[in-house]
From TrEMBL:
Pathway: Amino-acid biosynthesis; L-lysine biosynthesis via DAP pathway; (S)-tetrahydrodipicolinate from L-aspartate: step 1/4; Amino-acid biosynthesis; L-methionine biosynthesis via de novo pathway; L-homoserine from L-aspartate: step 1/3; Amino-acid biosynthesis; L-threonine biosynthesis; L-threonine from L-aspartate: step 1/5
Gene: AKHSDH1
Annotated CDD domains: ACT_AKi-HSDH-ThrA-like_1
Gene3D superfamilies: Acetylglutamate kinase-like, Aspartokinase, catalytic domain, NAD(P)-binding Rossmann-like Domain, VC0802-like
Organism, scientific name: Symbiodinium pilosum (Dinoflagellate)
Protein name (record): Aspartokinase
ACT domain sequence ranges: 316-388
Length: 514
């Protein structure tokens, strides 16, 4: 399918949706008019074609502002005139070139459409209705403890969008920055939730007079984000020390083949330069750099270009970092405690971003460990219990009690002054059976299934079988019961999603203790 035809067809959904919504509003007595953005929103007929990559920050189309405003004014004079202003339903995503060819604003273009028209109409704010309650401190799919951010600056939002955040697109924020229009991100399924407010600038020389600086009273880090699939391209050689223009040639080689540099890391010795690129660009980038430095490589065997694959970028973002000491130490300490190896690091001069390159296999663990270190008032610990009987039963009952505020106050009151401890009992085994739950066992239901005063998983299983219940029905979805295998039990316990984990031995077995 030709890219132009794909854009034409893809934009019809927005056109039909706008017509439908406008008709519905009119049917309820609310006067509404719909605008086909292809008649008013005009963009250059540039080289970009097709829909672009989902969530990409690269494809940005600058509209012809004067022509678009002129056409919108003409539509208003013809359709509305001197009558009271109706509700306007405008198609997102679609537009037209100067030559009149229907096209689109590429992926995430509907948000961009909203801010373009907000700027032209001098709107007081823009609300993006999403399926989440604002911008989160991390991707909830990878960090279940993530929560919505109350407010952030446009600079923080731009950093977050660049490093993989998909709630806001960088190009969509530009018109709002230019006209100082607040952006609200709210949940269409939970309209009462306040969501996230994006407004203001981070740097002192860009700061707006009416913005309220909130980062002094908040945690210095606002969000943890990542780019999952990257490769590192490194050129190294002793001949580069003190040589001018190496970095320029390196970057020009990548630019010549259209490779975007995501992150740069260079030591002061100038012995080597490392950049991170998208995984799909790794081979192309390596070949381009080798070609640019082929003379140096031929003359000196120690000069070489290398590529590391299977990596990810982890970034901590926040305006408050510039006013706080020890942020890098906490970041690297969190990764070190979780035994996550750092391959490369980078920090921007704005001090609102610190990035580390880690193994892709360790990304989930790194995200949770970093989020736990900076943004959690509660620390989550994964607990596995070996041994039933009276001791194991008593321990689980203590965990049930701990999950109540009364238990926390009575048992360890000092933790309330420092931070809460959230305990997930993820696995439990005795000599016959073991229970495994990736997201944690339901403690109260587990306690309700105690037979004869003690935990006996075999008796539990027999009882559920007589009642015709599966394990998931008796406890919760995702719980598995298997015959005891200590190797499998330990492998399950050593889950990389949890930075903090412990095995509690409640058995009398010397084999377990050893």
């Amino acid at each position: 399918v030709p890219p132009q035809m794909l854009e034409l067809v893809a934009g019809l959904g927005e056109v039909w949706s706008a017509q439908t919504l406008s008709a519905y509003l009119n049917s309820t007595g609310v006067r509404s008019e719909w605008i086909d953005a292809r008649d008013v929103l005009i963009v250059p007929d540039g080289p970009l074609s097709g829909l672009g990559e989902k969530g990409t920050a690269m494809d940005t189309i600058e509209p012809f502002w004067d022509e678009t405003a002129h056409r919108l004014t003409g539509w208003w004079d013809k359709t509305v005139g001197e009558a009271d202003a109706p509700f306007l339903v405008i198609t997102g995503f679609v537009c037209s070139t100067v030559q009149g060819r229907p096209t689109t604003l590429k992926r995430s273009g509907s948000d961009y459409s909203a801010t373009i028209f907000a700027k032209i109409l001098d709107a007081c704010n823009v609300t993006f209705w999403k399926n989440v309650s604002g911008v989160y401190t991390a991707d909830p799919r990878q960090v279940p403890e993530a929560f919505p951010i109350n407010s952030m600056t446009f600079d923080e939002a731009m950093e977050l969008a660049y490093f993989g955040g998909q709630v806001l697109h960088p190009s969509a924020m530009v018109p709002c920055i230019e006209n100082r229009i607040p952006v609200l991100v709210k949940n269409v399924f939970d309209p009462a939730h306040p969501g996230t407010r994006v407004y203001g600038r981070g740097d002192s020389f860009l700061r707006w007079d009416d913005q309220v600086d909130e980062w002094d009273d908040q945690m210095p880090v606002k969000a943890i984000t990542s780019i999952e699939k990257v490769s590192l391209i490194t050129i190294a050689g002793t001949s580069f020390m003190g040589t001018h223009g190496v970095a320029k040639r390196f970057m020009e080689a990548l630019s010549s083949v259209g490779v975007n540099v995501i992150l740069t890391s260079q030591g002061s010795s100038e012995h080597s330069i490392t950049v991170a690129v998208a995984d799909t660009d790794g081979k192309l980038a390596m070949e381009a750099v080798e070609s640019a430095f082929q003379l140096e490589i031929a003359r000196n065997a120690e000069t070489r270009v290398t590529m590391l694959e299977g990596l990810s970028i982890l970034a901590v973002i926040g305006e408050g970092m510039k006013n706080s000491t020890g942020i890098s130490g906490r970041f690297f300490n969190a990764l070190g405690r979780s035994k996550v190896n750092i391959v490369a690091i980078a920090q921007g001069s704005s001090e609102r971003n610190i990035s580390a390159v880690v193994s892709r296999e360790e990304l989930s663990l790194a995200l949770r460990a970093t989020h736990d270190a900076f943004l959690m008032k509660e620390s989550t610990i994964s607990v596995s219990v070996v041994g039933g009987g009276e001791i194991g039963t008593a321990f689980v009952r203590q965990l049930v009690r701990w999950n109540t505020d009364e238990g926390r106050d009575f048992d360890l009151p000092s933790l309330r002054e420092v931070q809460y401890l959230n305990i997930d009992l993820r696995s439990f085994c005795d000599s016959n059976k073991m229970l495994l739950a990736q997201k944690g066992l339901p403690l109260s239901k587990l306690q309700d299934n105690i037979t004869n005063g003690v935990f006996n998983l075999k008796d539990m299983a027999d009882g559920w079988e007589k009642q015709g219940k599966a394990v998931a029905d008796a406890l919760t979805d995702g719980v598995q019961m298997q015959d005891t295998d200590l190797d499998d039990f330990i492998k399950f316990t050593d889950c990389k999603e949890y930075p903090h984990k412990v095995i509690v031995d409640c058995s009398s077995s010397t084999d377990i203790a050893s």
